[in-house]
């Protein structure tokens, strides 16, 4: 049986290039593609591919969020392979938390990409051990001094930050807190601004580090 693959990247030429590489293989079939997170979330559940190859950054969101959403809503969930143009510890952490099976740079050779698809389709993992170790080491750091940025957050923003760290999407946060998705989006924008972050994955890492530090203090 062929391994079915869905491609998500906002650059058409990149999608075409990946599809061309994969479809030279007899056991791999590209069944769909999308250029935005919204398109991916609409199409992947209907096609139910074995593997989803996701660009980390999309015009209307993040591949990590798409990974989290489809893995929680599609049965059986696709194995997700994150592709990015550059190394990013925050995005890697987000990928790990979202349940991605692999994380590769776009400079990967075609034959290695094919091998990666086969590996994760078979249930394997391709999260680079060295890169993963860097992220985990950040979480093992000693206690940080009090952060006035966190204290500047409202109680509502602090709760939303914790839910972001739990891997919830804006829609899921809204359901949890009985808020409109647009309201949650506004809160997220506000807390990112106060914390000095550009992406929610940075906020997730920050919140996770605070939790770890708090756990060490309580266990001391």
TrEMBL record:
Q: Which UniProt keywords apply?
A: DNA-binding, Phosphoprotein, Transcription, Transcription regulation
Positions carrying 4-aspartylphosphate are 55
Q: Where is the HTH luxR-type domain?
A: 146-211
Keyword Phosphoprotein appears in the UniProt entry:
yes
Cross-referenced Gene3D superfamilies? 3.40.50.2300
Q: Which SUPFAM superfamilies match?
A: C-terminal effector domain of the bipartite response regulators (SSF46894), CheY-like (SSF52172)
The UniProt entry, under SMART domains, shows:
HTH_LUXR, REC
Q: Where is the Response regulatory domain?
A: 4-121
Q: Which Pfam families match?
A: GerE, Response_reg
Q: Which domain of life is it from?
A: Bacteria
List the InterPro entries hit by this protein, alphabetically.
CheY-like_superfamily, NreC/VraR/RcsB-like_REC, Sig_transdc_resp-reg_C-effctor, Sig_transdc_resp-reg_receiver, Tscrpt_reg_LuxR_C, WalR-like
Question: Known PANTHER family for this protein?
Answer: TRANSCRIPTIONAL REGULATORY PROTEIN NARL-RELATED, TWO-COMPONENT RESPONSE REGULATOR
> Could you tell me what this protein is called?
Response regulator transcription factor
């Amino acid at each position: 049986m062929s391994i079915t693959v869905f491609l998500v990247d906002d650059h058409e030429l990149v999608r075409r290039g990946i599809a061309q590489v994969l479809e030279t293989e007899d056991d791999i079939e590209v069944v769909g593609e999308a250029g935005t997170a919204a398109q991916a979330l609409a199409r992947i559940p209907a096609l139910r591919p074995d593997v989803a190859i996701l660009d980390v950054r999309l015009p209307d969101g993040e591949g990590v969020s798409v990974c989290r959403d489809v893995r929680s809503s599609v049965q059986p969930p696709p194995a997700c392979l994150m592709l990015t143009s550059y190394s990013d510890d925050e995005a890697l952490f987000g990928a790990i938390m979202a349940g991605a099976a692999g994380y590769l740079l776009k400079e990967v050779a075609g034959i290695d990409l094919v091998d990666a698809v086969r590996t994760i389709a078979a249930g394997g993992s391709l999260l680079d051990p060295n890169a993963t170790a860097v992220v985990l080491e950040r979480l093992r750091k000693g206690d940080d001094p009090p952060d006035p940025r966190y204290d500047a957050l409202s109680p509502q923003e602090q709760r939303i930050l914790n839910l972001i760290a739990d891997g919830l999407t804006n829609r899921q946060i809204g359901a949890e807190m009985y808020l409109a998705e647009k309201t949650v989006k506004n809160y997220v924008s506000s807390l990112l601004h106060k914390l000095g972050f550009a992406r929610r994955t940075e906020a997730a890492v920050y919140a996770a580090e605070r939790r770890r530090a708090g756990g060490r203090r309580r266990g001391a």
